[in-house]
Design goal:
The complex is a heterotrimer of chains A (about 150), B (about 190) and C (about 350).
Chain A: H1 4-13, H2 17-28, H3 39-55, H4 57-78, H5 83-92, H6 99-108, H7 110-125, H8 130-133
Helix pairs in contact in A: 2-3, 4-6, 5-7, 6-7
Chain B: H1 3-12, E1 16-20, H2 26-38, E2 54-58, H3 69-72, E3 74-78, E4 85-89, H4 90-96, H5 100-109, H6 116-121, E5 123-125, H7 133-136, E6 141-142, H8 158-163, H9 185-188
Parallel strand pairs in B: 1-2, 1-6, 2-5
Antiparallel strand pairs in B: 3-4
Helix pairs in contact in B: 2-5
Chain C: H1 2-15, H2 35-49, H3 65-76, H4 82-89, H5 92-105, H6 120-141, H7 147-158, H8 160-169, H9 185-202, H10 205-215, H11 225-228, H12 234-244, E1 251-258, E2 266-273, E3 276-283, H13 286-301, H14 331-338, H15 341-347
Antiparallel strand pairs in C: 1-2, 2-3
Classes of the chains: A mainly alpha (about 150), B alpha/beta (about 190), C mainly alpha (about 350).
Chain lengths: ~150, ~190, ~350
């Protein structure tokens, strides 16, 4: 049986191969060497790059979270507060600000951040056994309100 | 004109810190100094931006090391040529250069990127308290030491030692200081 | 393995080939075979024809001016009459052009009259009201700010750039009847002013003021009012203010410094009056820091510091009553009045 026509038919109906490869060229335009122009070579690099970009989601998040942590530690250190204590106190007092917001406050609104630190110091003075001996602080914040 | 411009200037200005390395562990000190050299003590920190401060370290010749570290801690060096590897013990390196141990400790602690050399140039090490005036005039603040300086027994006065509470007295024949031991003629004759 | 997959895909392609053209465009995943050809063709066509000319919105078939006018009024929450809105948008140049067009066509203007008024008078009315209200409002919220500063902020809000920005964003560009296209900035500004004038004329002044309050004044959010006014001699003004309040003369003191032997030196200078810190600022040199500290002290004394309360806008300003005729003190007059005697002698 003459089956060669099947081959011809498939080639005629196939997608424009260059058009399909154009999608990959859009990624490979910035590569160096033959992997920029030769499809066989570029497809390997592209696939690896796409795999990397998928897998790098978690390390990227960790990297940025670490920067935020360092910044907040620095900002707390400037006002004599410990980072862990600071976050714990804010959480216990229902001041619902996440770490990203807090670092923005520390950079762009340092006075607001300072007031949060002052609050932490005041709040920590009210906790524990020592609180029984101290007097109620004067001002807006009192032990009953918190 | 603008008031905001000077606020920006103040935010990114480099301040100068002084650190006394007297009786301090070089590795623990390096950990603390790196924070200031990298700018990790500022809320605007970013690993790629060059916002670290200057640190002036004095008394590097009086650093201390725990246990047997002076003898056993080794610094490695390779010239890059075949057979160019060498090892030096800490006491020997310290003997050659008073500031080298702290320099190496900080250098190895900093991240290995292109900013490292620049950060190292902002670390000013001095073996004693003699610091040039043009550097000392820049200094704004000091960095807290990493460990308490121990007070040796000979620094305490006799009054303090006598007043220290005691549970019992040692018997007379118990030797505490060998140099003050009384000579016993009975035993001496055998030597 | 690979060969079998290739063979399988070949057969699938043959089997799935479209036998007849469907009238519906079926959404498919994958690559459109002819898309490249189509795009190339379109690209070449575009190259032949050239770029699309800029056309007024009214040139499209679905343009209905009456409906757009009605929608515009509703969008702003102002129920203005259609004739009023028409007047707001008709410019003098447009009416003249129309008249000339009719004359050229030989139409008698007396029998078929052009029932359009231009917005000149409304714009004038709107501008006066806007200017008066903005100044009054600023004097009310910044009572200690000097008159020069108030004027500077007022000029900022009333500038062509700002009003043009507001006008274009509430969508008056397409509705304007004017001879210039694309619309000039000045025409947009005039239309906006005429709109305010029309609200004042048809409704009442209060309504027009609410409009200014809701559309123009919010542009002050995020603007540093101190930066708009350039104080030439801050220390002189500060001395005059302190002298008028019978406080001690300003004494600059160096608070702290860093890297003073380097190029990146920074100095913090504080200004004291009767041993009380009234302002502080950093600077590259001591003299710059001193000047900036004087500016900071001025900000604190004029109550326009960064920690000032938020502007009265929106619901907060509903029952706002203030005397529009009241004016603040002018800085020049103030300095003349309250300059310390010794300084006056030296300057004279």
């Amino acid at each position: 049986m003459f089956l060669t026509f099947l081959n011809f038919a498939s080639r005629q109906g196939g997608a424009d191969i260059q058009w399909k490869r154009h999608m990959y060229k859009r990624i490979a335009w910035s590569y160096y060497g033959r992997k920029r122009n030769c499809f066989r070579l570029s497809i390997r690099t592209i696939e690896r790059a796409l795999r990397y970009s998928t897998n790098s989601g978690k390390p990227k998040r960790e990297y940025y979270n670490n920067i935020v942590k360092i910044r907040l530690e620095a900002a707390c250190w400037e006002h004599g507060v410990l980072y862990d204590e600071f976050l714990k106190t804010l959480d216990e007092s229902s001041i619902q600000l996440n770490r990203t917001t807090l670092q923005h406050l520390a950079i762009y609104e340092p006075r607001t951040f300072q007031s949060l630190c002052d609050f932490t110091v005041k709040r920590q003075g009210e906790l524990g056994l020592k609180a029984a001996t101290t007097t109620t602080p004067s001002g807006v914040l009192t032990r009953g309100m918190l | 004109m603008a008031h905001n411009r000077v606020l920006q200037w103040a935010t990114f200005a480099r301040s100068w810190w002084i650190y006394d390395a007297y009786h301090q562990c070089p590795f623990e000190s390096a950990k603390r100094l790196c924070i200031f050299l990298q700018g990790q003590h500022k809320p605007i920190y970013h690993p790629l931006s060059d916002i670290g401060d200057h640190v002036v370290v004095i008394n590097t010749k009086d650093i201390s090391m725990k246990n047997e570290y002076w003898r056993k801690w080794r610094f490695h060096h390779h010239t890059g040529y075949p057979g160019g590897y060498s090892q030096t013990s800490a006491w020997r390196l310290h003997d050659l250069d008073d500031t080298k141990i702290l320099h190496k400790a900080v250098y190895s602690r900093l991240p290995g990127n292109l900013l490292r050399r620049r950060m190292m140039r902002r670390l000013h090490l001095f073996p004693d308290t003699e610091v040039p005036d043009d550097i000392l005039q820049n200094v704004t603040d000091q960095i807290r030491q990493v460990q308490l300086i121990p007070k040796p027994i000979h620094k305490y006065s006799k009054e303090d030692i006598d007043n220290f509470p005691k549970l019992f007295d040692w018997p007379e024949e118990y030797v505490i200081d060998y140099s003050k031991k009384k000579k016993d003629e009975d035993t001496e004759k055998y030597f | 393995m690979a060969a079998s997959i290739r063979l399988g895909s070949c057969i699938r392609r043959i089997l799935c080939q479209k036998t007849s053209l469907s009238p519906l465009n079926v959404v498919q995943r994958g690559y459109r075979n002819k898309l490249r050809d189509e795009l190339v063709q379109l690209y070449r066509l575009r190259e032949e024809i050239g770029p699309e000319p800029l056309r007024h919105r009214s040139e499209w078939a679905n343009w209905n001016y009456n409906v757009e006018l009605f929608a515009f009024g509703k969008r702003l929450g102002e129920d203005l009459k259609e004739e009023t809105l028409r007047t707001v948008f008709s410019h003098k140049c447009y009416i003249e052009r129309e008249r000339k067009k009719r004359e050229d066509l030989g139409i008698d203007l007396q029998t078929v009259s052009l029932s359009l008024e231009d917005n000149e008078q409304l714009a004038e009315q709107g501008e006066v009201l806007t200017s008066r209200y903005i100044k009054g409002y600023l004097r009310h919220v910044y009572p200690l700010f000097f008159e020069e500063g108030i004027s500077a902020v007022h000029d900022y809000l009333m500038s062509e750039e700002m009003l043009n920005y507001i006008g274009r964003h509430i969508g008056i560009t397409d509705l304007m009847l004017c001879s210039d296209f694309p619309a000039k900035d000045s025409t947009v500004v005039k239309t906006l002013k005429a709109l305010i004038g029309a609200i004042q004329q048809e409704k009442d002044e209060e309504r027009a003021k609410r409009f200014i309050h809701d559309f123009i004044l919010p542009q002050l959010i995020g603007v540093d009012v101190n930066e708009t006014w350039k104080v030439v001699n801050p220390m002189g003004l500060l001395t005059a203010i302190l002298n008028s309040q019978n406080r001690g003369l300003p004494e600059p003191r160096l608070l702290r410094q860093a890297g003073s032997n380097t190029v990146m030196a920074v100095y913090h200078v504080g200004i004291y009056s009767h041993k009380q810190l009234i302002g502080k600022a950093p600077g590259e040199t001591i003299s710059i820091a001193e000047e900036m500290a004087a500016r900071d002290a001025l900000k604190n004394l004029m109550k326009t510091a960064d920690s000032r309360p938020a502007l009265l806008l929106g619901k907060l300003a509903e029952d706002l009553n203030f005397d529009e005729n009241k004016t603040n003190i002018s800085a020049i007059d103030f300095i003349k009045q309250h300059e310390p005697k010794q300084a006056a002698e030296i300057s004279s």
